[in-house]
Amino acid sequence: MFSFPQSTKENAYKKDKPIPADIAKVAIADLEKKDSEAVSGVKLSFCTGMRAEETTCLKVKNIHFTKGEFGFGYVVIVRGPEGGAKGGRPRKIPIIDQEAQDALKSIVVGKNPEDYVVAKPNGTKMEPGTVEAALREALKERHGNTYLYNSCHGLRKTFAQRYYDICREKYDKKQAIAKTNAVLGHGYKRGPQGIKSYVKNMH
Predict the structure, then answer these.
(1) Cystine design at 76: which of 27, 62, 95, 125 (Cβ 3.0–4.6 Å)?
(2) Residue 74 lies in a domain
(3) What are phi and psi of 11, to 5 degrees?
């Protein structure tokens, strides 16, 4: 009797599940102990919601530690494939708090403005897959298969909820949705549809 392949819906669910902040912080600490440069990409995804391919294109000169929406600075995702912006859409991501600012400062210390933030030992751009693999390995060591199919996308979702919650303290729901869409690179006018898979509590 012919049997259909097992559904991949559960795999997709795990991939899309947000990685809680406390679990992400432990994974980052474990990667730091290994002295892996990939941890810089993981920190960027956790602190700013950047896609893995965006983290590996980012240069030091595009991280600023003054001004910004919350006064802690901002990160600029530049236009085009070299900058990693999906669909060529540039955007400015605010650094949301002191903890995030400290984390980002730690990954640029000693580097020059034109250096890649996430780089191989020879200074060239790291592959996004290397960042993703490092995160998955760190999660697997602590949590087995719980986050087997997850990646920086899970960190991106965690950031999106945090950013949305902060915005809702200052703005109405429509504005918070628009701003979250923009910071994720989905387009300011996408509405609730643009963030529904990222922000589960759209209060």
Answers:
(1) 62
(2) yes
(3) -60, -45
Nearest Cα to 92, choosing from 50, 152, 125? 50
Q: Closest Cα partner for 119 from 47, 62, 55?
A: 55
Number of domains within the chain: 1
Q: Write the CA distances from 66 to 135, 180, 182, integer angstroms.
A: 29, 21, 20
> Of 177, 183, 179, 182, which is closest to residue 196 (Cα–Cα)?
177
Cα of 48 vs its chain's centroid, Å: 5
pLDDT band at residue 150, thresholds of 50, 70 and 90? Answer: confident
In a domain, 3, yes or no: no
Q: Is residue 18 part of a domain?
A: yes
**34-77 per-position pLDDT tens digit:** 988 999 999 999 999 999 999 999 999 999 999 999 999 999 99
Check which CATH number belongs to the domain holding 120 and give it. Answer: 1.10.443.10
Nearest Cα to Cα of residue 159 among 107, 102, 98, 95: 95
Residue 41's domain comprises 11-195
- For 154-173, write each residue's pLDDT tens digit: 999 999 999 999 999 999 99
